[in-house]
Amino acid sequence: MTGSTIKDIPEEWEVRGTETPFRGKKTSVRTDDVVMPDGSVVTRDYQVHPGSVAVLALDDQGRALVIRQYRHPVREKLWEIPAGLLDVPGENPLHAAQRELYEEAHVKAEDWRVLTDVYTTPGGCDEAVRIFLARNLSEAEGERFEVEDEEADMELARVPVADLVRGVLAGELHNNCLVVGVLSLVAAEQGDGLDALRPAQAPWPARPFEA
């Protein structure tokens, strides 16, 4: 295959039955009986997720805005880029990203592009994440958002992208959105340039929305 023909395609295999054995505050677990190509039926369990957005915010000195936050499932404090859930079905992902950048970093941006879209763990979860590139940063107006729980312990820093790349390749930085965002940024810079990235309101089939 050539590069122009390598792309993911929609496909849905027959589901004979489905159950939801667990419902949480934001996500749930679903069990589907899926028909395989040979006609057999197998059970597949997966997490149902509303989707997320993340923001690689780049300042005029080439530094990325990152936060360090405790993540209980992995028992680590991870350096991450600002991110959050799509709280409302059909929510415009750009608006959600702007909200997260304000709430987590008290920053706003004038230039927004889509950096990349990913499925975080498609073998066991349907979470889709849109990662934005935000530039032309400035301090947000008004009072800072009042944080709670893990976010009350967050640290905020601006780190040169080259340092983040080194950390990723050294196995010292592990957050999915940070890793994908930083490496996608470098690839875009070395390719057609950041201004060639998709516009902020580009369609997102994984999580359709109204502009």
From TrEMBL:
Keyword Disulfide bond tagged: no
Organism: Streptomyces thinghirensis
GO molecular function: hydrolase activity
Domain Nudix hydrolase: 47-181
InterPro entries the UniProt entry points to: NUDIX_hydrolase-like_dom_sf, NUDIX_hydrolase_dom
SUPFAM superfamilies, per database record: Nudix
Gene3D superfamilies: Nucleoside Triphosphate Pyrophosphohydrolase
Protein keywords: Hydrolase
One Pfam family per UniProt: NUDIX
Superkingdom assignment: Bacteria
Keyword NAD: no
Name of the protein: NUDIX hydrolase
